[in-house]
Design brief:
Elements lengths: L1 E2 L21 E10 L2 E11 L4 E5 L6 H9 L6 E5 L11 E4 L5 E2 L6 H6 L3 H4 L7 H13 L15 H14 L4 E5 L7 H13 L6 E5 L3 H7 L2 E6 L1 E6 L1 H4 L2 H8 L3 E6 L2 E7 L10
Parallel strand pairs: 1-7, 4-9, 4-10, 6-8, 8-9
Antiparallel strand pairs: 2-3, 2-5, 10-11, 12-13
Bound molecules: adenosine-5'-diphosphate and magnesium ion.
């Protein structure tokens, strides 16, 4: 459970240098076991800067675990994760936009304060926010269309607004790699569209984005590549390559409703996890 006020690490104010000859993200043979039960098995891939990837797979597929090892919250049991050639824990360019159900929304803090937390590691322990930090906060809130609600308590916002505040926090952090865990779950279509139009704006900044989602059709339409996960990577590429009846059935073991069309496989729904999310 993430407290809204929680700052994951105050270790470094500058982060480490980037080796720009290395990929922004590279996983090599990463496995994660919890009490000997495998959650991720032999996961290897690279991302290009500015790329948008949707991570899909049934509940328990390891999507959140994958994001946890990338952000450095969790160490892999085997293998390694590199961000521009360095371990994730040393970086401040990764932002984790948490699953809404994992946030303590009762914590009394306003929108601007949440976004300022994105500056925390730049500030370090011994510096108060300066004018420039507030500029980052305001610009980020502008970009997500939440500047007019800067003084509002975070718990009073709608789900879509809360999600936008966390995106603003990632922007204030000057994140280059944004990990978003099910940002669309429980949002209405209009709020989902707002999130996508924000992600569209981030293209100009070449922010690299990984989004875990259960919406397979949106994933296919809106992302550069799809990663189909179920403990290990079953497919990673364009929708055409990944959305085959064979791979989808392997991942979801028949829990999907598929129709074959002349253009390939169309997914009707991911029935394993329909409906909103638990709240509170
Ligand atoms: P997803 O996000 O795709 O639903 P998760 O990454 O949450 O999947 O979980 C993958 C597997 O790892 C599941 O079997 C889950 O029960 C297990 N798991 C995840 N986190 C923990 C943990 N902290 N301790 C023990 N098991 C865990
Ligand atoms: Mg998850």
């Amino acid at each position: 459970m993430e407290m809204v006020h929680h700052v994951s690490s105050l270790r470094s104010t500058t982060g480490v240098g980037h080796d720009i000859n290395q990929p922004i993200l590279e996983l090599k043979e990463v496995s994660v076991r919890f009490h000997n039960a495998p959650a991720l098995n032999d996961v290897s891939f690279q991302l290009h800067k500015g790329e948008r990837v949707a991570v899909i797979g049934p509940n328990g597929a390891g999507k959140s675990t994958l994001f946890n090892v990338i952000s450095g919250v969790l160490s892999p049991t085997l293998g390694n994760v590199n961000i521009y050639g360095h371990r994730p824990g040393e970086h401040i360019c990764i932002a984790y936009v948490p699953q809404r159900s994992h946030v303590d929304w009762k914590f009394p803090v306003n929108v601007a304060d949440v976004v300022m937390m994105g500056r925390a590691r730049k500030l370090g322990l011994f510096r108060w926010p300066r004018r420039q930090d507030w500029d980052y906060v305001n610009d980020s809130l502008e970009l997500v269309g939440m500047a007019h609600l800067a003084k509002r308590q975070i718990g009073e916002l709608s789900g879509g607004q809360q999600q936008r505040v966390f995106i603003a926090r990632a922007l204030a952090q000057e994140a280059e790699l944004m990990l978003m865990d099910e940002p669309l779950t429980g949002l209405d279509v209009k709020s989902q569209e707002e999130i996508f139009s924000i992600l569209e704006k981030l293209r100009q900044r070449a922010v690299t984005i990984m989004v875990a989602t259960h919406d397979l059709n949106l994933a296919a339409e809106r992302f550069d590549r799809l990663m189909l996960l179920n403990g290990h990577i079953l497919g990673f590429g364009k929708a055409k390559e990944v959305f085959t009846a064979d791979l989808l059935n392997q991942a979801y073991s028949g829990q999907l409703r598929l129709i074959e069309t002349a253009n390939g496989t169309m997914v009707l729904s991911d029935t394993c996890c329909g409906g909103g999310e638990p709240h509170g």
